[in-house]
Specification:
By secondary structure, the chain is α+β, with helices and mostly antiparallel strands. The strands form 5 sheets. It has a 6-stranded antiparallel β-sheet, with helices on both faces. It has a 3-stranded antiparallel β-sheet with strand order 5-9-6. Helix 1 packs antiparallel against helix 11. It starts with a helix and ends with a helix.
Length: 491
């Protein structure tokens, strides 16, 4: 009798476990299917070309590749394709600094001049390591990006051809004027992370890339992550492209630095994510400092915030990377051990990765979410090619009325206007698009600034002044509008 009861209990328990496992598997399939539908639509609408990995509590929920790694060769992306991750390098640089802090070799409150002997004391004695990590150093944004893309200085060409050592680069950075007194404001600065790289090199006596490999890549098992240098042959490397209204174009290479200089894969970045849940790379105390919610937008390489979820607050960690031909996002929700990794080798006028990740988060939370919509700006560009401005104006109103299927982006419309103004030399069409954008976003100073520029190019001085003036009224610090008003008024 006892054995029969025991056997029955075991069979019942097995049935319950099987049902639970089946339900869990069905739920996972449901989430995976919804994510697949979401990303497939983004790809179909020309809004995502790249790879994606979604995981939770150590289990991969969804992993897929979309589009081309090389458009000229018609080579498809795969989940093993290497993408240039740009500023996602910054959290690794910050992690190296914290390792050196733990070793007693670096202090967050010491000055740059204490570690880099050649750094001018006039500024090096005023900038702390913590300010470099927090983007409050006052250093300029990025020496590798010229102010005027049509007039690139020879030294910038050398930087982006990877011809300078990090020390040579930092000497150039140190000679640039500060944007503000260190510690008094926030200004995102890739230059600051190049300086952090110099500190790492001078403290360890090794190259930044060697220290990174020894202290992060090898311990985390990131065997496919390599410096994003221009000349070496890199197996399965994705080419970078930018999307314009003319079509897909090759994007220029930007020099590899400790601010943004790595190729990596979904798998390697996932291994890094998992390692950050352990103390193998850094202590719990240092991780608390790395992931602390701060007043500034980006600190210690991470954009850290808290959001309301299920009646309580949860921490969300984001790190992003953008170059002319690449755009990336790695989002972590530590409470759920959740990670969303999006790597794309096509950069468009609109950054959509945050909205993609937000929808995926809602799918995983079993909350309502929105599917992507077609771009009004891109649709208008096609209508202008076929039917001219008159056809585009009529089509615009139709698409606005179908807000459930089409999305209107101020930045995309602005880009379309400039494409028509300068690339196509279609001045009347550009004015029409800028006017539509201004009417759709009347509170934006930038829409009036762009419309003023179009009127100036068309020779209508009075309307140019009127729109530049409105831009200044909406944003008194709009430097371009202020300068153009002086020029147009002759003062």
């Amino acid at each position: 009798m006892g054995n029969s009861v025991t056997r029955f209990a075991k069979i019942a328990a097995f049935i319950v476990m099987s049902i639970a496992a089946t339900e869990s598997h069905g739920l996972a399939q449901s989430k995976s299917g919804r994510i697949d539908k979401l990303i497939t639509l983004y790809h179909k609408y020309g809004q995502f070309n790249g790879v994606i990995l979604v995981a939770q509590r150590g289990q991969v929920v969804y992993e897929h590749a979309f589009g081309q790694s090389n458009f000229e060769l018609n080579s498809p992306n795969t989940v093993d394709t290497k993408f240039e991750i740009a500023s996602i390098t910054k959290p690794m640089t910050a992690l190296l600094i914290m390792q050196l802090v733990e070793d007693g070799k670096v202090s967050l409150h010491r000055k740059v001049s204490d570690y880099v002997s050649y750094y001018p004391r006039e500024t090096g004695d005023r900038i702390t390591v913590d300010q470099l990590l927090n983007h409050t150093s006052g250093l300029q944004q990025d020496i590798a990006f010229p102010d005027n893309p049509k007039d690139v200085p020879p030294i910038v060409t050398k930087i982006n051809a990877d011809l300078l050592s990090n020390d040579e680069l930092v000497k150039l950075i140190a000679a640039r004027p500060l944007r503000f007194e260190p510690g008094t404001s926030y200004g995102y600065s890739s230059d600051g992370y190049a300086v952090l790289g110099a500190i790492i090199e001078h403290v360890t006596g090794k190259s930044y890339w060697q220290v990174l490999a020894e202290r992060i890549l090898e311990p985390a098992g990131m065997t496919k992550t390599v410096p994003a240098l221009l000349t070496p042959l890199i197996l399965k490397r994705a080419s970078g492209y930018r999307m314009s209204f003319s079509g897909t174009e090759n994007a220029p290479h930007i020099g590899a630095t400790p601010a943004g200089g790595l190729y990596s894969t979904l798998g390697d970045l996932y291994r890094w994510d998992r390692a950050l849940y352990t103390n193998s790379l850094i202590s719990r105390r240092s991780k608390d400092l790395l992931f602390e919610v701060r007043k500034v937008n980006t600190a210690y390489g991470w954009k850290t915030s808290e959001e309301e979820w299920a009646g309580k607050r949860r921490k969300v960690l984001r790190t992003t990377g953008g170059l002319p031909g690449f755009v990336n996002l790695l989002l972590r929700v530590p409470e759920q051990e959740r990670v969303i990794i999006l790597l794309s080798n096509v950069r468009d006028a609109v950054y959509r990765l945050d909205e993609i990740a937000a929808a995926i988060n809602r799918i995983l939370d079993r909350a309502p979410y929105e599917l992507p919509k077609r771009s009004i700006a891109h649709a208008l560009a096609q209508v202008i090619d076929r039917s001219g401005v008159t056809g585009a104006l009529a089509r615009f109103q139709q698409m606005r009325a179908r807000s459930g299927k089409y999305s209107l982006s101020e930045s995309e419309m602005n880009s379309l206007g400039y494409y028509l103004l300068y690339t196509r030399n279609a001045i009347d069409a550009a004015v029409a698009i800028f006017r539509l954008n201004m009417e759709a976003f009347p509170g934006s100073a930038n829409t009036y600034d762009s419309l003023g520029e179009a009127y100036m190019v068309s020779g209508d001085k009075d309307l140019a002044i009127k729109n530049y003036q409105r831009a200044v009224e909406l944003n008194p610090t709009n430097r371009n509008s202020i300068d153009m008003l002086k020029k147009l008024r002759g003062n």
